[in-house]
Amino acid sequence: MNIAVSTAAEGLSMRPQVQWRVRWESELCLTDHVELSEFFRKSYGPTGAFNAQPFQNNRSWAGARPEVRAIGYDARGIAAHIGLLRRFIKVGEVDLLVGELGLYAVRPDLEGLGITHSMRVMYPVLHELGVPFGFGTVRPALEKHITRLLGRQGLATLIHGIRLRSTLPDVYLNLSTTRIDDALVLVLPIARSIGEWPTGATIDRNGPEL
Fold this sequence. Notes:
Elements: H1 6-10, E1 19-24, H2 30-44, H3 49-52, E2 68-74, E3 77-91, E4 94-106, H4 115-129, E5 133-138, H5 143-149, E6 157-167, E7 178-189, E8 202-204
């Protein structure tokens, strides 16, 4: 069954023909993973073959595995996706529980379906889970878009100048086990205000990126 708060979210559509379903990871069957794997390969493939590689062999995640997914469907199948994972990150020296948002994708023929729509679908889920903050990273190219649709309404804040450390999802003998990115961090105040977000120029995921 779907998460309890998904009654409204399940019927929410970015456009009339796209319907969202919010599902726990344990609710997905083999067919779901096969369909999601194909969807991710087609969505990430145009950005480079390396980006589609994690989704080979019917794998429907790239780094960390999500615990909740919002999946948009239309008449052609899966249209869009965003995942959520509760985890403790370290902001500066402060351990902090967040709901990390990631694994965002949209089918190539539906480029107009923005990331902000899928984040809105996840808002009731974040509130139901009771996490202090939603957390994610976004590409610099999306900064103005996110600010216009979420920032000006007080739903999210973008933080610049953060060094973010993540582990690699797999171990390679010729590579470091971690990587550090200069990240544009997205924070969604849920159970606490944005003023309570810890100060710090570094964030440690203590795990792979969602």
